[in-house]
Amino acid sequence: MKNIYRKLYIFSFSGGCVLAVLSVVYYFIWHDQFVVNGALLVELGIAAIAAIGSGFYFRHAFHKLKTADETSTDVFHFEEVTELTLKRVPALIPKIVHVDSFGQPQFMIVPNRNWARPFMVLKLFEKGLIFPVSYTICDMNGSPIATFRIKNTVKQVTLSLWSSEGLLIGTYIQQLAKSVLVNRGTLYGSNGSIWRQLEAKNMTGDIDVTDEQGRMTATYRYGRFPYATHPAFVSTAHHDYVRFGSHISSDEKLAYTMIFFFWLGLEN
After folding, report:
1. What is the per-residue pLDDT across 207-246, written as a single tens digit (0 to 9) for each?
2. What is the pLDDT of residues 128-162, one digit of tens each?
3. Could you tell me how far CA 168 lies from the centroid of its own chain?
4. 185, 169, 186, 189: which is closest to 177 by C-alpha?
5. CATH superfamily of 78-267
6. Is residue 169 within 8 Å of residue 154, measured between CB atoms?
7. Could you read off the pLDDT of 38-50 as tens digits, one per residue?
8. DSSP sequence for 230-256
9. Helices marked H in the chain
């Protein structure tokens, strides 16, 4: 979270300064038409003040947190992950990190380095709407854990997950016509058999995923976050939180990470 707050205050300050300069330039170039076009100048000024104010706010949040090394030298074991809190790092190219209960990043999701990566500056391309896009799940040192691809054909979204060795782990298919109001889809195993059925309870995305014995494998509740009072999280209002079942495998956790990334992570 410390790095996210740092990026937020840099982006806010930069954006506010740009808007302030535009306001000054607009006034001196078109000041004769101020009576007619004054509303735009006022809007630019308010936006500049708001952005700079946000910069001060996140700068204060950044300095409140204790100094911490954002890059761990410890070996990361994905099987130890029991929950998922995805946070988007302010950047031109999308970067999502999972942070633990203390706000420390554990792993990240970044676009693969290929021809499609530059296009992902535009949000339109992030979910594979125009052409398929691929992401890598890796630890904070950049070591790959798994990769997945998002293919959106307007009628159907297909998420395919592979291990770092290139072996297919699973495929998630969501028919968009059937999931307009609530998220629902089917997760298939590597052999093509149905692994899990996922269907949200309501439009906010609340969901409980269970296995064949009725045991919870993943659960999500909109607005529910057990670490909201921790110093790392008090400066932002909303946090998406997914809890994994204690008995599920690393492959199933990776599959849920891919799915909830598609549902939640890109919007944070």
Report:
1. 999 998 989 999 999 988 888 888 777 767 678 899 999 9
2. 888 899 999 999 888 999 999 999 988 899 999 99
3. 23
4. 185
5. LURP1-related (2.40.160.200)
6. no
7. 666 667 677 777 7
8. STTTTTSS----EEE-TT--HHHHHHH
9. 2-29, 34-64, 250-263
Sign of CA dihedral 12, 14, 15, 20: positive
Backbone angles phi, psi at 188, to 5 degrees: -105, 145
Residue in 262, 13, 267 with CA at minimum distance from that of residue 149: 262
Question: How far is CA 126 from its chain centroid?
Answer: 11
* Model confidence at 104: pLDDT above 80: yes
Q: Which of 96, 64, 4, 97 is nearest to 230 (CA)?
A: 64
Q: How far apart are CA 41 and CA 51, in angstroms?
A: 15
| Torsion sign across C-alpha atoms 109, 178, 172, 121 | negative
pLDDT digits (tens, 9 = 90+) for 48-75: 777 777 766 556 555 666 554 444 445 6
Q: Output the CA torsion 264→135→141→232 (10° steps).
A: -10
Check residue 76 and report its DSSP letter: P
Report pTM: 0.77
Give yes or no for a contact between 107 and 140, defined as CB atoms under 8 angstroms apart.
yes
Q: At what angle do helices 34-64 and 2-29 cross, to 10 degrees?
A: 160
What 3-state class would DSSP assign to 53? Answer: helix
Is the Cβ–Cβ distance between 174 and 167 less than 8 Å? no
DSSP string, 194-235: EEEEEE-SSTT--EEEE-TTS-EEEEE-TT--TTTTSTTTTT
